[in-house]
Specification:
Elements (H helix, E strand, L loop, with lengths): L2 H45 L4 H6 L5 H10 L6 H12 L14 H36 L4 H15 L2 H15 L11 H4 L9 H8 L2 H38 L2 H8 L4 H30 L2 H6 L5 H10 L3 H29 L6
Helix pairs in contact: 1-4, 1-15, 5-6, 5-10, 5-12, 6-10, 7-10, 9-10, 10-12, 12-15, 14-15
Length: 353
């Protein structure tokens, strides 16, 4: 048996141990971060100048009714006891009942979250489809007019307020040109005839082969998703350019050119492939940002997602819904953030040490 073969089992055990340690660290960090998120959200909700009891019974309720409600919902207890009770319920998915809908908050979140998920997913696909090629092109043409143009387009995406872009998009593409449908998720002609299955309307229309509804749904989602995709593209193109510039300056690229490999193969087959590992993290973080940052977009386009749900709840002092939606959005962001770190370690064995 050769020396290499004798060390092979030890190397595999070492890699397995490193992977297990990374998974355990992932679970521990996720648990601690989630508990911290619940604590911060709860105490911020308590210091806000909104009395949740008055929001429930009304500000004209008699003092006896207010006192009875305060005792019933545990608001007469010390804050630390209120937090422990809330934490116990939150860990089981119980965020209380919404004042607006009169349904459990978790049930409302399950109803509205697919709309946000679909919008952010389409936006991320658009951002990746345009951001990566533009970033690669800017890196290859470094210092040229193309490079400067890509950087300016990205800078505009960073600088422009998303709600202003949304209003401008509605004015131009909906009101003036009529290329897309207006606010909302689906036209009124299909609202009562289309039957959702998964909550992702585009997928549901494909499953049911309802191409007329698919066209209408696509016409509603394409404008807000394109705006979110533009913001995502600005970030992804900038990071792709940075990663590609680093890879194109490596010695293996010089060696590949000396061997006579085509420039296209060097760029797309070697440099971009080596940039794929950090790009996974960038795309995951961009996706998480769209999921938790689409509040203004959903408000402008009347998109019935968790962002609009959170806005309406906050305007009506529905604190159970506000806290539940905030915790859910934060949990998604934390989960995708930690998942991107885990994928980074899985794809790049060097980071496990």
């Amino acid at each position: 048996m050769s020396l290499v073969q004798s060390h092979e089992p030890a190397r595999r055990r070492k890699n397995a141990s490193a992977l297990l340690l990374a998974l355990l660290r992932f679970v521990f960090v996720a648990a601690v971060t989630f508990l911290g998120l619940i604590a911060v959200t709860f105490f911020i909700g308590r210091v806000m100048p909104i009395d949740p009891v008055l929001a429930i019974v009304g500000d004209r309720a008699p003092a006896s009714v207010v006192a009875a409600a305060r005792q019933q919902y545990g608001f007469d207890l010390p804050v630390w006891q209120q937090f422990l009770l809330y934490l116990k319920k939150a860990l089981t998915g119980d965020f209380g009942t919404s004042i607006l809908s009169t349904y459990p908050v978790m049930q409302d979140i399950r109803r509205v979250f697919p709309a946000t998920l679909e919008l952010a997913t389409v936006g991320t696909v658009i951002g990746v489809a345009f951001g990566i090629p533009l970033g690669v092109l800017a890196a290859v043409k470094r210092g040229s007019f193309i490079d400067q143009a890509v950087r300016v387009v990205g800078l505009i995406g960073y600088s422009m307020p998303i709600f202003w872009l949304g209003l401008l998009g509605l004015l131009v593409f909906y009101a003036r040109l009529g290329w897309v449908e207006g606010p909302g998720r689906i036209g009124i002609a299909y609202e009562y005839t289309f039957t959702p299955v998964t909550g992702l309307y585009l997928l549901d229309a494909i499953i049911q082969r309802d191409w007329s509804a698919f066209k209408d749904i696509f016409s509603h989602i394409i404008l807000p998703a394109s705006l979110l995709g533009y913001v995502s593209m600005a970030y992804i193109s900038r990071m792709t350019r940075s990663f590609m510039l680093n890879e194109l300056s490596q010695e293996y690229v010089v060696a590949a050119r000396a061997k006579g490999l085509s420039e296209a193969r060097i760029i797309w087959g070697h440099a971009l492939r080596n940039s794929a590992v950090p790009l996974v993290t960038v795309i995951a973080l961009s996706y998480a940002t769209l999921l938790e940052g689409s509040v203004l977009t959903e408000t402008v386009f009347s998109w019935p997602g968790i962002g609009l749900y959170l806005t309406n709840s906050l305007q009506n002092a529905d604190m159970n819904a506000v806290l539940g939606a905030t915790i859910m959005i934060g949990a998604v962001f934390i989960g995708l953030n930690l998942l991107s770190d885990l994928l980074y370690q899985l794809l790049d064995p060097r980071t496990r040490t």
